[in-house]
Amino acid sequence: MKLTFYGGAGNVTGANYLLESGGHKIVVDCGMEQGSRFAERSNFESFAYNPAEVSAIFVTHAHIDHIGRIPKFWRDGFRGQIYSSRPTKDFADLLLLDTEHIMEKEAEHHGKTPLFTAYEIHEAMKLWHGLEYHKPITIGPFTVELYDAGHILGSVVYKISAEGKTIAFSGDLGNFPAPIIMPTEPLPDVNYCVIESTYGDRVHENVTTREAELEKAITDIEARKGVLLIPAFAMERTQDLLYHLNDIIEKKHVPRIPVYVDSPLAIKLTVVYKKYEDYFNKEAHGLVESGDDILNFPGLHLTLSTEQSKEINDVPPPKVIIAGSGMSHGGRILHHELRYLPDPNNILLFVGYQGSGSLGRSILDGAEHVTIFGEDVPVRCERRSLSGYSAHADQPHLLSWLAPRKTTLKKVFVVQGEPPASAALADHIRKDLGVEAIVPTTNQTVEL
């Protein structure tokens, strides 16, 4: 069995792994690289292998850095089958269409051809099948079983067996305990593991403090009569925030001020969440059963149209605005940042990973001026960051996930991290667990 790392090696984004056995080929994830621009130039390059020879794609979860090049994969000849959990399939359709819309505008601005169109998305979705956890399927020589990764709703760890060998693909692992979703399942008994390392060199703040910190931010913004601006990923992060806001507002822990979710995509994804309440964790499911609409509360405003978004400006502070995108790549958050970053009474609250080269990372790292829509914008607002809201496991969680299998693991491949994070995690795997660990390079092939 051969494994080749065509994406996600030495980089947080762009996951794409090819497994070969007995002349059969399958792929785990087919993601888009993301960074300083929404669609990096590398996404437009041809695949280093022939998509027409691939029997199946197994998708770990619906984030664009794991699914974003699937329509291009179809355009370049893929006609196999696509598999994921059922929620991931529904989320992917919405997220890919939203991405196509953003890229179309970006391509038009730069005079380029879009990476893919709605037609390729539609054709790829015809090949997509939803699977259940713990119900193995067989594709050629490969037997594939799904485990819950606890990262976002429907996220998967894959256990793949062939030739008497077993390998796990972590996808992205969750930060436990997570609101709403089930916790990460233990690593199954495998010989090899491909593990993410987004936070491979860091330890999150105590997740139990995140609700208290959110409360403090709202209380502070009410006292200042300012704006609390939260760039949030439409998938999972926005729903987590709504879950906690529902709790603290209904319990009257904070003053009641208007909260705006200014993201049509987040609003549509929240509808899908409600379709899959059977995937919720025990606490969230219990609240739903008791009649609590856990993603809704008094004072919440969902702004779907552009006109509704503009009307937020007319509402006097204090107010809370949650908008995408999470790293300020594009979307409505940019309009709000243009307006509110210069005011020292405002707070910009980061609740997710800010990729290297992104506008969000520049602001988080202390930039005094940024460029938005060609305008120079001074950053005078207060900046805060809550890593406890990260949907990614930190270094201790990653190591504890691997630890129970340290006697059966032959080798661990550390991917999906910036080089220092991947190197740090690999070093700890070798020293703390006594397991061989390597950080692969792009296009590297290994024999299992």
Task: Characterise this structure.
The mean pLDDT is 91. The N and C termini lie close together (5 Å). It is built from 13 helices and 22 strands. It has helices at 64-67, 70-75, 86-110, 118-126, 210-224, 237-250, 264-275, 282-289, 306-311, 333-340, 359-364, 395-402, 419-433; strands at 2-7, 16-21, 24-30, 56-58, 81-85, 128-131, 137-139, 142-148, 156-162, 165-169, 192-196, 227-231, 259-262, 300-302, 319-323, 347-350, 369-372, 375-378, 382-385, 411-415, 437-438, 444-447. With 448 residues, the protein is an alpha/beta fold. It folds into two domains: 2-202 and 391-447, Metallo-beta-lactamase, Chain A (4-Layer Sandwich), CATH 3.60.15; 207-389, Rossmann fold (3-Layer(aba) Sandwich), CATH 3.40.50.10890. The radius of gyration is 21 Å and the shape is globular. Helix 3 runs antiparallel to helix 4, helix 3 (86-110) runs antiparallel to helix 7 and helix 12 (395-402) crosses helix 13 (419-433). A seven-stranded mixed sheet has the order 6-5-4-3-2-1-22.
